[in-house]
Amino acid sequence: MSNQLHLKGLNGIRAIAALSVLVYHAFTRMDWFGLDRFAIWGELEPTKPHSFRVGVFAVTVFFALSGFLITYLLLKEYELKKDINVGKFYMRRILRIWPLYFLLIPVSLGVYKLLDFQYPPSSIVYYLLLIANVALYLKVPIPLLGGYWSVCVEEQFYLVWPLFMKFSKNRYFRNTLILLAVLMALRVVFNVLQMRFPILAAYNELMGQSRYHVLLMGALAAMLYVDNNQMFIKIFSNKYVVLAAWIFIFLPVIKGFRVLGQHEVMALSTIVIIVSQIRNQNKLINLENKVFDFLGKISYGIYMFHPLVLFLLGKSGIWFAHPQPWNYAIVVVLVTAITILVSTLSYYYFEGWFLNLKKKYTVIEDSGFRKQ
Asked: Nearest 5°: CA angle at 55, between 51 and 58?
């Protein structure tokens, strides 16, 4: 078996998710440019209409995709080598995630210092220890590093998952199913009992925010796909199921969108789109093209840089004294264009150096996702 694989369309999924988060955050900060942030989509506030929640669900898409891709590559490594090299896995993740992650911490804090912007200094330790999701839960995040919480959730998953897979061996599907069932059961129990025992509400909020079960859903799907489970493949590549998945993916654009089990359904929709893309079957929207591939490769930079770009633009003096509908589009286009430019430069002139080092630790490589 070749040690290089190609999974079609996955960069496209990442590109859509990263840009969705960017647009979501841009609309929540329209007041920085003299625009009513509630006029079109806005944000959550008791006295205002509920916002569109594209950014919230885009992170769920990221989690489901990460769980699928990482598990897929680990399984292929096991098929090829009859083992999983945990040390090499950690090095690949470190070289991909840590350089930009730790670069932006001093850069963002330096910007705050220059502009005399206040932030909770004690929160820095959460970011340095890769537990920024705890800072968000405790309501002490550092604003320009707000997106770090989801990166930390994935890093926590990456710390445990290769060991879980390595020692599960041929029982990985059963063990993952049990772990997923336990997490889902805890969610249900906490939801039922949290009114009587308030401490459970706190744990439930942290679990719901971190969404480890979504990563496990992606992992379970990868196992079924690699094992060539025909029932799974038939259902998840059915044209009507794919159509329903795409519809659900775009539903968060609707203001006030809420359904029961929305993150779980979003994860399932993401898995459906993944399967239809990589099988090139009933995919409806083709995500395998040069534009999506490029944006997918720099999607980590888009996700990490856009809060800083948005903040600096907000402080630049751009102000619309007489707001018009197209002003919103101007802000979004400016933030998007500058973020893509900065992310491209970072990818080729900073991250690229570490990505080249990463090749030494690569066992199984998705050629279409080689630098993710």
From this structure: 135
- The answer on pLDDT for 372 being more than 50 is no
* Cα 3 from Cα 330, distance rounded (Å): 45
pLDDT at residue 319, as a whole number: 87
337 Cβ contact partners less than 8 Å away, ≥ 6 residues apart? none
Q: Average per-residue pLDDT in the chain? A: 88
SS3 (DSSP) at 182: helix
Say if residue 2's pLDDT is above 50: no
> Residue written as tokens 């989801």?
150
Q: Which residues contact 222 (CB under 8 A, 6 or more apart)?
A: 67, 68, 69, 71, 72, 75
Distance separating alpha carbons of residues 154 and 148, to the nearest angstrom: 10
As a three-state string, the secondary structure of 253-300 is HCCCCCCCCHHHHHHHHHHHHHHHHHHCCCCCCCCCCHHHHHHHHCHH
How far apart are the C-alpha atoms of 280 and 242, rounded to whole Å?
A: 12
Whose tokens are 């896995």? That residue is 89
Beta pairing, strands 365-366 & 4-5: parallel
What's the CA gap between 12 and 306, in Å, rounded?
Answer: 18
pTM > 0.85? yes
The DSSP secondary-structure symbol of 170 reads: G
- Locate 287 and state its tokens: 């995500």
Residue 118 domain boundaries: 4-369
In terms of Cα–Cα distance, which of 107, 135, 121 is closest to 301? 107
Backbone angles phi, psi at 319, to 5 degrees: -145, 130
Number of domains in the chain: 1
Chain-centroid distance, C-alpha 111: 25
